[in-house]
């Protein structure tokens, strides 16, 4: 019977993160001198100029939305899908195809309250079966579709298990990058013994790349010979759940992108996480010092020209020296959330017909925010918070944005109406939404 206590399987919407995108290392390490002039140091990694699997012919395939519009472009080579230096397996490609037909949406929590018509239907539930001849819903299970909820897990207990493949040259760069992450954050890297989920640092002739977030099982971080410590820091960032900084949904408020100057198979690298179908969100303002940010000329069709510029037209320097203050803040938001969110649910109706199995259940929820898990000190949000929510009508996962400045928020009503006729479900309706665990908050649920 519905509403049910929220499903407890842990998942997260990754901050600057998505589940499947693979990221390139930078061809140049660029740093700003004290005089403000830029200097660049060439390295031998051809990550931004070479395709993965270059000697294998490919078939051009596209990911389209429900209207038939092309959203992503790939070369299918053998059993993988290649977009520049990004490599997707069949499952990841299938996910993207399904996502663009049923995209993750952001909605207003108050827009999901039951309508007067829904309430009228509830009044008819016992006596008239399916109102207005509405066809019965065949699948009444809220958990029948997992979809977006399976994307990009954070590493449990802030612990990443790893191995270094024996054929990888210059293994000290991995150790130095790991040391940097451990010095700047409280993440722990532990050499793997028999753990099921782990990273393996492996050699690749061309690319420096990583999947985003914990994928489950073995997941490689590919390192070409010329990819230095800074690039390894960058790729580890992806592996623990970071997007590129230019993938923020609000990036157009800070930079301009010349899509006409991007190499065809690199366009995906400049799309926002909402454009690529990945769940994510951003903190505060754009971080031009982030180790996850590209330089202006990366992936340009014409070498030496800009793909991405600041709004004032100035060049962007994508540093690979180490984590910025903003990068550390992003990490802490994901792995050390300071917000405790408690959803308190009150059931206001619970009718059940033991003869037919028909039922009508209604309730409402309010979310409260606290400074810690003791829930003793209320917390007023200092910035908007995106909650991961399942729409009970469509069964899709959506974002609900809670505004800054509040310590509690009315999430509205939830309802489920079922009519059975001799064991056959003849009418089903559900609405409202359940909050799920997500990034940026500790989650608890209570029924009052």
TrEMBL record:
<feature type="binding site">
    <location>
        <position position="238"/>
    </location>
    <ligand>
        <name>Zn(2+)</name>
    </ligand>
</feature>
<dbReference type="GO" id="GO:0008270">
    <property type="term" value="F:zinc ion binding"/>
</dbReference>
<protein>
    <recommendedName>
        <fullName>Peptidase M12A domain-containing protein</fullName>
    </recommendedName>
</protein>
<dbReference type="InterPro" id="IPR001506">
    <property type="entry name" value="Peptidase_M12A"/>
</dbReference>
<feature type="binding site">
    <location>
        <position position="244"/>
    </location>
    <ligand>
        <name>Zn(2+)</name>
    </ligand>
</feature>
<dbReference type="InterPro" id="IPR006026">
    <property type="entry name" value="Peptidase_Metallo"/>
</dbReference>
<feature type="binding site">
    <location>
        <position position="234"/>
    </location>
    <ligand>
        <name>Zn(2+)</name>
    </ligand>
</feature>
<dbReference type="Pfam" id="PF01400">
    <property type="entry name" value="Astacin"/>
</dbReference>
<dbReference type="InterPro" id="IPR024079">
    <property type="entry name" value="MetalloPept_cat_dom_sf"/>
</dbReference>
<keyword id="KW-0732">Signal</keyword>
<keyword id="KW-0479">Metal-binding</keyword>
<dbReference type="GO" id="GO:0004222">
    <property type="term" value="F:metalloendopeptidase activity"/>
</dbReference>
<keyword id="KW-0862">Zinc</keyword>
<dbReference type="InterPro" id="IPR034035">
    <property type="entry name" value="Astacin-like_dom"/>
</dbReference>
<keyword id="KW-0645">Protease</keyword>
<feature type="active site">
    <location>
        <position position="235"/>
    </location>
</feature>
<keyword id="KW-0482">Metalloprotease</keyword>
<dbReference type="GO" id="GO:0006508">
    <property type="term" value="P:proteolysis"/>
</dbReference>
<keyword id="KW-0378">Hydrolase</keyword>
<feature type="domain" description="Peptidase M12A">
    <location>
        <begin position="146"/>
        <end position="338"/>
    </location>
</feature>
<feature type="signal peptide">
    <location>
        <begin position="1"/>
        <end position="24"/>
    </location>
</feature>
